[in-house]
Amino acid sequence: MVLLRNLTVEQLRKLLAIREQIEALQGQLDLIVAGSGEVPIPFAEEASVPAKRKLSAAHRRKLVKALAKARKMRWARVKGGQAPPKPAKKRGRRRNPAGNSERETEVRETGRGLVEHLDEIGGHGGHAQLIEYLTGLRIRYADDGRARGGCHGSQVNIRDPFHPDTMPDWLKLSRDQFPALGEAIYRFADRHRDRVLRRHERQANIAGLSNFMDVMVATSRLLFVYLRRGVLTQPQVVARMRDYLNIFTGVFARYSDEEASGYLARVYSNGNGNPEQLKEVFEEHNVSGHLRALLLVAQVVRGSADGSDASTAGSQLPMLVDQINAFENRLGLGGATGAQIGRALEDYEMLTQQELALWTNDLK
User: Could you give phi then psi for residue 41, rounded to 5 degrees?
Assistant: First the structure.
C-alpha cells in the first residue's frame, strides 16, 4: 500500500483530481439507480479536452491540508537524518588535477617541491594534464614576511641523489610534445616574473623578501631541471635568469628626479629603515648567498648547453658579474662566502652532494 507521506506534491494533486472524478461518477450512478433521469454523455471530441474544473472551498481545504501534511512528513525525515543525499554543488572552477594534498599546498605557498609535484602529475596524467596544471598554477604573492617563516635556508632538505637530467618514464614517452611542454614552462616562469617578482619590485616592501626569493628559487630550479632534461633551450633559460637577477638587484638613481629600479635597490633607496636594519635582514635571509648562487647557476647554464658542466662557469657573463659586484658594493653587502653560496644552492635542491661540491669547489 502506498503511504501518503511517500507521495510528492504533484502526485497528491493528481490523486485529489482522480478522487473528484470518482465522486462525480458515483453521483451519476446514484441518479441512474434511483431512476431520476438520463445522464448526459459528452461527445468524443469534447472528451479529448476535459474542461477545467474549479475547486470548491472544501476541496481546496483538503488539498492545502494534504500538502501541509506532506511537507511536515518530509521535514520530519530530514530532521531524523533519513533525507536522501543532495547532489553536490557544481563549482565554478575546474577540478584541480593535482588534488588537495599537502604537497599541493606547499607548492602554492612557497614553490618548494614544484619539480617533484609536476613529475607526480605527469606520471598520472601525462604531458597534457601537466600543461593544463602549469597553465593554472600560481605561487602566491605575499609581502607580509610569512613565507618560510621569514628565514631562507632554515628548512633545507637535500634530495640525495637527485639527478635533474634523469627523465621520468612519462616524460620519455612525450618527446614529441617537448615544444608544447617547454612553452608551458616558459609561460609559467614569465607569469611569475611579471606578476610576483615585478610586483615586489614595484611595492619595494622588505617584508616581501622571503616570498620574492621563494618564487625566484622555484622558477629558476624548474628552468634548470627541464633544461637538463632536454625540454628547454639554453638561450631561453639564460635570458630568464638574467631577468631575475636584474629584478632582484636593480639600478640606483643617478639624479634626484629619477627612481631606482629593481627590488633591493628600491628597498634600499626608500629610506624606510636604516642601513644597519636592512643589513641584518639581508644577512638573515642570506641575500648575498642567493644573489651569487643564482649568478652561478646562470653562468653554468651559459657555459654548457645543458647546464651540466660547471668547469667554465667563472668565465661566463662577465658584464653581469661586474654589475653584481658594483651593486653589492653600493648596498654594502660585501662578497658572499663559499659557505653562504653553498647554503643558497642547497635551497634549490637540484644538485647531488657530489655536484654541489664541484660547483662550490672554487668558492672556498
Answer: -110, 125
